Amino acid sequence: MEGPREGRILKRSPARSVRLEPASGGGASQRPRVVKRFASRRLFAAALDRSRARREPDLLAQLSALGLPVPRPLALEARDGGWELAMEWIAQAQPFSAVLAGHAPWPVPPEVLARELGALHARLLACGIEHPDLHPGNALVDATGRVWAIDFHKARRAGRPSPARLEAQLAHLAAGVRERLSRRFRARFLWSWWRTLRPDLRPAAQALPLLAARVEARARRKRLADVERRRLRWTRAGSAVRRVQLAGGKGFERADREEGLARALEAAIARSGVLGPRAILPCSLDPARRSLVLSADWRTVSSAWYVAARLEEHALPAARPLAIARGERTWAAFELPAHGHAPSSWGELRDRRLLRALGALAAALHDRGLRPARLVPDILWIDERARVQLSCLNRVAPALELSPARALEPWYTALGADSSERAALIAGFSGALDLSRAERAALRADLRRG
Fold first, then answer.
1. Which residues pair with 291 in a beta bridge?
2. CB 411 within 8 A of CB 365
3. What single DSSP character describes residue 237?
């Protein structure tokens, strides 16, 4: 039996992969195509693969016939112990996640895409299709700004959704983008969704503000829980990291960076001769970056690694996890800007610009529902442009119920801040939150009174 055909890998996980196969000849039928391969190793999961592989082309065919922007299914076949679904290749389209990450340009203004995304989700609901995995990586944006929905292997026919189910779906979508898109973008999405939704499914227009508030609060809680679950993917081969064999043991390195990163770091650590628990080393692969290396027992190192991964998932300004190793020497490396330093005392942060930057960092943590378990100066990193980020943390704690005043209080205490320093922290804190001008003024007044 033939093995899997070759092609450029677009996405890979232990049980599934997606590849782009180039055209093999002339004619419309020989255009490039996308092939999704389902190949789980466990017996029960393999049976589920078969069910999902058969359901996805049925859904795609149904939606395509109704004129929805989805790839057309081309073929489904069993191959080499797995199932392969061939689909239409959407030319000149990028995942919306690539646009959000800055890897692809915005083809149209953000407000246009917000309306397109809202309308697409409403049209899927009108067809009785629930797509539980519709996140920015599964929405393609073409050069004209048209949005396409992909990856329907978890989708199902759900019939008429209840109001509670509609709210849950909106919260799911908002949770995936709330840290990368403004509240104004999400409001435009919601308005377009409501206007496109079939009239018999719409909530009352006067209830929209309340619905939006509930969705935002629910999305914040859901995002916190989702990121906590996702941290384990940073020690499993997949889209976040790949497994590597090192001279001194085994480990993982970032999947979105060049191969050999972990081996280069291992060599740099060996050359440095550093035996202490924490060291800052030059990055041989990028002179504009430095590597913070932690060397300790596996529990300590993996705890720091998971926290750094969690902060990155939350899009917080923090050291990025690069590689982790376990063996003769257990270590983890994190990426920092080259031109910067960790403050040795809180006194180094009494400059007004730095206090505002510290307030912005406190706001970002509060927005994600997090707080550092301990506040000491060396968890911070100050770069040459007076920006403050987290260099390393051993633990963060959930803080969803904290008011803004209570979120700032530990920073006041750690700094021993006087009234003018508190004002700078408040200015940075309120300015960094996604608020309207009136909301920001009210928050500042409350914080000053507090």
1. 281, 335
2. no
3. B
**What whole-number distance in Å separates Cα of residue 413 and Cα of residue 415?**
5
Distance between CA 307 and CA 189 in Å, rounded? 32
> 79-100: per-residue pLDDT in tens?
888 889 999 999 889 999 999 9
**Burial degree of 310 (CB within 10 A; 0-12, 13-18, 19+):** buried
Backbone φ and ψ of 67, nearest 5°: 90, 10
Report the C-alpha gap between 314 and 304 in whole angstroms: 15
Alpha carbon distance 424, 120 (integer Å): 43
pLDDT tens digit string along 431-442? 999 988 888 999
Give CA separation, 378 vs 333, 394, 445, in Å: 16, 12, 31
6/3 Cα distance (integer angstroms):
9
Domain boundary among 45, 69, 88: 88
Tell me the average confidence (pLDDT) per consecutive run of 10 residues in the chain, 450 residues long: 57 80 66 88 72 89 94 91 90 91 92 95 90 88 93 86 89 92 94 93 88 94 93 90 94 92 90 74 70 91 94 94 94 91 92 96 96 92 92 87 92 94 96 90 87
SS3 81: coil
**Domain span holding position 288:** 240-337
CA-based diameter of the chain, in Å? 76
Of 88, 117, 147, the residue at which a domain comes to its end is 88
340 contact partners, CB below 8 Å, separation of at least 6? 290, 381, 382, 383, 384
Please report, for residues 152, 425, 445, the alpha-carbon distance to residue 434 in angstroms, rounded to integers and kept in the order given: 32, 16, 17
Domain co-membership, 112 together with 57: no
pTM of the entire predicted model: 0.85
CATH number at residue 43: 3.30.200.20
Taking the CA atoms of residue 271, residue 276, residue 277 and residue 280 in that order, the dihedral angle to the nearest 10 degrees is -50
The secondary structure of 312-381 as a DSSP string is HHTT-SBPEEEEEEEESS-EEEEEEESSEE--SSGGGG-SHHHHHHHHHHHHHHHHTTEEESS--GGGEE
* First and final C-alpha spacing in the chain: 72
The DSSP call for residue 276 is: S
Instruction: Return the structure tokens found at 140.
Output: 């393609």
Both tokens assigned to 89: 């290749």
